[in-house]
């Protein structure tokens, strides 16, 4: 059965997720440090990595959304000011982007990548909690178990051929039924907490995430949503076509 996978716990609690150490390709700049938790359709993958040192990448081999959970990572495109990414911030590195990667001390991050043959427009886009939010659609009325929430998003990157989208989202509290998740989704929680119910919770227990946690939910996973206050998150979503 497909299940949601914890990629990081901010409180350092142990994870039941199984990680496999492997690079995404022979030219993966983090091939030696990457730990993959999930791989699926459309060359999507999610996991975690650690890094220290400096690497110059002439052409990034895949599209990657990453969020730093410990330390500081500096990303610099040619002719541009460096992006210094600390814990709780992130970036999208589009396929084909030239970038210098630097970490003076050990840095740890979680990631969601798309290593497909479909190129994206080169770009290096930072992700911050103080996003340029705009009103966005919320859950369909038929799946809600209470009042409709007010949702906002700031989608900063889209690769239309592969339907890979990344950005920041927030919402007022809401409660939703357990149903198959419609997309592959990576989430890093910036604020608030969520209880994810599933059909395997006969005793009422459920997977919960809070600020600083990261999770990946594969498309088709039967999962609910219950939040009692504002929730904000970085996200990557993709509708995995058969």
From TrEMBL:
Signal sequence region: none
Residue limits of the (S)-ureidoglycine aminohydrolase cupin domain? 167-235
Q: List the source organism.
A: Ralstonia soli
User: Which Pfam families does the annotation name?
Assistant: Cupin_3 (PF05899)
> What name has this protein been given in UniProt?
Cupin domain-containing protein
InterPro entries given in the database record: RmlC-like_jellyroll, RmlC_Cupin_sf, UGlyAH_Cupin_dom
């Amino acid at each position: 059965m497909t299940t949601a996978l914890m990629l990081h716990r901010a409180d350092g609690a142990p994870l039941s997720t199984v990680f496999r150490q492997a690079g995404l390709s022979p030219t993966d700049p983090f091939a030696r440090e990457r730990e993959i938790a999930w791989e699926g359709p459309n060359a999507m993958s999610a996991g975690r990595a650690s890094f220290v040192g400096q690497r110059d990448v002439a052409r990034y081999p895949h599209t990657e959304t990453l969020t730093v959970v410990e330390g500081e990572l500096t990303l610099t495109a040619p002719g541009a000011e460096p992006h210094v990414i600390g814990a709780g911030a992130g970036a999208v590195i589009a396929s084909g982007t030239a970038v210098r990667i630097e970490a003076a001390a050990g840095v740890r991050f979680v990631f969601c990548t798309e290593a497909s043959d479909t190129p994206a427009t080169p770009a290096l886009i930072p992700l911050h909690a103080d996003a340029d939010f705009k009103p966005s659609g919320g859950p369909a009325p038929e799946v809600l178990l209470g009042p409709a929430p007010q949702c906002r998003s700031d989608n900063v990157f889209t690769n239309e051929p592969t339907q890979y989208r990344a950005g920041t989202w927030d919402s007022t509290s809401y409660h939703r039924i357990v149903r198959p998740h419609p997309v592959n989704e990576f989430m890093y929680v910036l604020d608030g907490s969520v209880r994810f119910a599933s059909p395997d919770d006969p005793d009422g227990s459920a997977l919960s995430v809070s600020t600083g946690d990261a999770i990946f939910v594969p498309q088709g996973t039967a999962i609910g949503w219950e939040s009692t206050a504002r929730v904000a998150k970085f996200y990557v979503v993709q509708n995995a076509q058969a």
